[in-house]
Amino acid sequence: FRRSPYLSARGNIATVFLGSTEEGYAAYHADKYDEEKNPNGIINFGTSENKLCFDLMSKRLTQTDMNLMEPPLLQYPDWKGHMFLREEVARFLTCYCKAPAPLKAENVIVLNGCGSLFSALATVLCDPGEAILIATPFYGGITQSVFLYGNVKLVYAYLDSKITGTSTRPFQLTVDKLEKALQDARAEGVTVRALILLNPQNPLGDIYSLSELQDYLEFAKRHELHVIVDEIYMLSVFDESATFHSVLGMDRLPDPQRTHVMWGISKDFAVSGIRFGTLYTENQDVANAVASLCYFHGVCGPVQYKVAQLLRDRDWINQVYLRANHARLKAAHTYVTDELKTLGVPFLNRNAGFFVWIDFRKYLRTGTFEEEMLLWRRFLDNKVLLSCGKAFECSEPGWFRIIFADKIHRLQLGMQRIRKVLEEREREILAEAKEQPCQSDQDGKADSTDEVIFVSRHQEPACAGSSSLGDLIGLLQQQMRSSDWLQKNTAEQFA
Questions:
Q1: Which ranges carry the Aminotransferase class I/classII large domain (predicted)?
Q2: Are the C-beta atoms of residues 202 and 350 closer than 8 Å to each other?
């Protein structure tokens, strides 16, 4: 890593984040798969986007009612958002979150995406060097969002795949795990100000029950923690057997002044290129503080108008879009999971989001994150981009996230490439085992016969060594956990 003399310490840190997280995406953008122009290019199963509904969204967004242009749309708005949009968001969330009473427009703020919301909330709820509690694995972009501007750290409640007395499913979040992570952080002198909940959860696909949500919120109230609830996949629950419960639909919030809910259109409406996110909070101090940052993260007037038109068209949403979207998501999920079953690969079978959390541990020579990264690069060399577990701060090497919300021809080709890598890897590991068998090789039970699907037994990572991480982003995140890291890494050291 080259420290630039032209940048501040923060500028150099921002460069580290960019360089360490963009390797796969830089390769993808330089060599994108195209059925006609570049059939040997990289297929992207790493970015959580819904590519199944362009036909529906392009048709709706180009209808004549979307094209109004009036002077207020080209002028500075209220930084919280135009009132016509905030009123429509309040009505929309009241409906789809099943709120017990109508939600209020004055509690709504709109920004250009949920990443900006995480950044703004971290900045107004925490002082530099303080922390937010979150369970792993989690969407790794949150680390960058809360740190780059706010200098806020994340404290991890590590979840694992083991089934125990208190954990009835793999990677289950419990209050005991939150308590332990919080007390460990406080013992190290770290001030924790908030808890982040992802529901539905990315990358696991878990949907929290009402009783679980109540327990998490009661835990936060006991410790006077704010709760930031990200519900960006709330309408992407694609199986009728699963029921999503919004925090905004609860009859009584334990601590409404410290409960803040975010949602956006990028996932549920398959338009990640339209930057729009919304925050709902009853705390007007928080709302006003976040609104002051909307000056940097506002949504332009014409986009606000289009979003309002989209959200108010309930007939189209319910009768056309959601029906088609859920059917397409379910079909794509079924195709990918059937392929995984054929390969004998364990995975978490969930019904929300665009992703499957896959257990590739038996394809690692040793249970380390270095081996995980080698497997990730092997996939990339074979022109398929996945997301490895370390990108989500997973505690166990060998878990990967695959995005299935894509067209069938790309899913078919991508799964063929994955199959090729896994079959090659299996042959190599078997050949090496014959040449030099490992004394500590174990064959263990799968972590759940119900939740980790299809394969009831798998090979535990053998001869596991330390899990030290070689890539820069892991090192940076480790160093960030030290409360005095920024004090030690001054601008002079980056000169």
A1: 43-405
A2: no
Cα(202)–Cα(356) distance, integer angstroms: 10
What pTM, to 2 d.p., does this model score? 0.89
Could you write out the DSSP letters of every residue in 195-261? EEEESS-TTT-----HHHHHHHHHHHHHTT-EEEEE-TTTT-B--TT-----GGG-S--S-GGGEEE
Q: Cα separation of 92 and 87, whole Å?
A: 9
Q: Residue 311, SS3?
A: helix
For residue 33, pLDDT over 60 is answered with yes
Q: What is the mean pLDDT of residues 279-305?
A: 96
- According to CATH, the topology of domain 69-316 is Aspartate Aminotransferase; domain 2 (3.40.640)
pLDDT computed for residue 436 by the predictor = 77
Strand 443-445 vs strand 108-111: parallel, antiparallel, or unpaired? unpaired
Between β-strands 457-459 and 226-230, what pairing exists: parallel, antiparallel or unpaired?
Answer: unpaired
Domain residue ranges of the chain, discontinuous segments joined by +? 12-54+318-463, 69-316
Q: In this predicted model, what pLDDT tens digit does every residue of 223-275 receive, in sequence order?
A: 999 999 999 999 999 999 999 999 999 999 999 999 999 999 999 999 999 99
Q: Tell me what percent of the residues of the chain surpass a pLDDT of 70.
A: 87
- pLDDT-based confidence at residue 367 (cuts at 50, 70, 90): very high
Nearest to 230 by CA among 101, 424, 48: 48
Please give the Cα distance from 362 to 359 (Å, whole number): 8
Q: Give residue 344's identity as a one-letter amino acid code.
A: G
Is 62 in contact with 423 (CB distance < 8 Å)? Answer: no
Angle value at C-alpha 258, between 253 and 263, nearest 5 degrees: 80
Q: What is the pLDDT of residues 410-443, one digit of tens each?
A: 999 999 999 999 999 999 999 998 887 655 444 4
Is the CB of residue 110 less than 8 Å from the CB of residue 277? Answer: yes
Gap between the Cα atoms of 416 and 140, Å rounded: 27
Task: State how far the Cα of 393 lies from the Cα of 24, in Å rounded to an integer.
Answer: 17
Determine phi and psi for 389, rounding to 5 degrees. -60, -35
Residue 399: helix, strand or coil by DSSP?
Answer: strand
Indicate the pLDDT class of residue 77, thresholds 50, 70 and 90: confident
Distance separating alpha carbons of residues 395 and 8, to the nearest angstrom: 32
